[in-house]
Amino acid sequence: MKRLVLSAFAISVLFSCSSVQKHNEQISKLHDVELLRADVDKVYLQLKRHHPKLYQYTPQEVMEFKFDSLKQSIKSPMTSRDFYKKLAPVLTSVKQGHVSVRPLGKRFKRKERKALLKKKFEFYDLDFEYLDGKLWVERTIGKDSSFVGAEVLSIAGEPASELAELYKTRFASDGYNTTLYNRFVSKGFRQFYVRDKGFLDSLQVTFKTKDSVFSKLFKRVPKKEKDDSTKVKTDSIKKEKPKKLTKTEKKANRLAAKKRKKDNKKYGFISRTKEYTRSLTFIGKDSSVAYMKIRGFSNGNYKTFYEESFKKIDSANVKNFILDLRDNGGGRIAEIERLYSYLTNKEFQFITESEVNSRVPILKSIMSNTTPTGIKVLSGILSPILIVQNLLKTKRDGKLYYKFKYAKPEAPNPLNYKGKVYVLINGNSFSASSIISTNLKATNRATFVGEETGGAYNGTVAGFYKLYQLPTSRLVVRIGLMQVEAPYKQEPDGYGVKPDVEILPTVKDRQQQKDPELEWILNDIQASK
């Protein structure tokens, strides 16, 4: 038995090593011209099959011309990464932000992965903002804040602003909106750079501050790097024993750990930045202003958070409520519907039935060539249940619609807030953030301050997704399967929720650590007293 286990382990290791080598060869080798052209056809075919609003913003003849031109432009063999750089800008012609493509990353053997997990790439500690045509360091993760506020002049010898402009051609907003681009390239700059260049062990970056121009070589370093100069030599002194805790102290530690775990779940803990997805604070001596920051609608126990928050708001007799949706890229429909129920005192229908291209969008999402075989088998077993659920569709005017439960009339939450509402938005307020903003804007429930949302007022194609891997280049294309929209429309189509008061932050605001949008709201509240 022991030999059998060892043999099985050896075979699995050999297979794993072979798989890693094969994967890495696939992304680095030159692919045949005709096979890459076939990949282009596959992408377009998948879009036509699954995307319910493919020609909403770009006419069919224009779309076909773009894909045909892409095919004709492939005249010599190229790697998957180079193919990605040609395909991504063409996919943006769909003008739907949820349509995207990504290249495969380098894979590592087990020992290499274990070694990499013990290190961090210093460059990833930087968060950027693209303002006034320049890339700036907005903040750093960790103790070193010396780069904050510095302009990034170049990365590995390439001008940072040119890289940012290039990366802006590789993703789309919803419709004709332009505010998403600078915001999204800021938030995703690190990811775009890695997609562009691949795996890196070090990176030379040149910065500029008021006083000087300087360079820094960012490397992969141990996550818990110790400074030798501060080490205490233990060879000549007796090592101290850890203090023995009393039963009371142990119990207190257990309770504190339990509370942290509960809070992390409720507020949605973000491990990279050590901050919460959701937070509620009160402003002013009398706590008459409630400020709720929501960084995303994707993680954590939102039901508990909103229930507790609006109980506190009700108890504090809050007169003004500020909802901050800036840089909130979206998430769960269930969460935004729940939040909206606390902000209205009328019966409401949050979204409409979603237009789809298939009677079984859930199965279409699951039965993709990127889905593990085990999940496909399980889905096959459960398919009768999923199919029955998907029969809750209506066919109207030759189109198919999916009935989300959130398309039914709902009553407001008994704890609904009745005071004045302000909503902070910017170009990175996308997807679910735009949907709840549309509902609040259309019903005149809030005053919007900031910048036009990157997500469209009239809805977005999202819900479930098809993740399709191209056969030759192995690029992964993401396609939304459902048109998700509020029961309100604006003309012209293709633009976001626009602010009642437009305020655009400047570089000077950032350098002085000012928040002009929030300051305007607080001044408006003070003036109305």
Automatic annotation (TrEMBL):
Molecular function GO labels: endopeptidase activity; serine-type peptidase activity
Recorded superkingdom: Bacteria
Region (Disordered): 229-249
Entry-linked InterPro entries: ClpP/crotonase-like_dom_sf, Tail-specific_protease
GO biological process, one term: signal transduction
Domain named Tail specific protease: residues: 238-504
Biased composition (Basic and acidic residues): 229-239
GO cellular component: outer membrane-bounded periplasmic space
Name of the protein: Peptidase
Lineage: Bacteria, Pseudomonadati, Bacteroidota, Flavobacteriia, Flavobacteriales
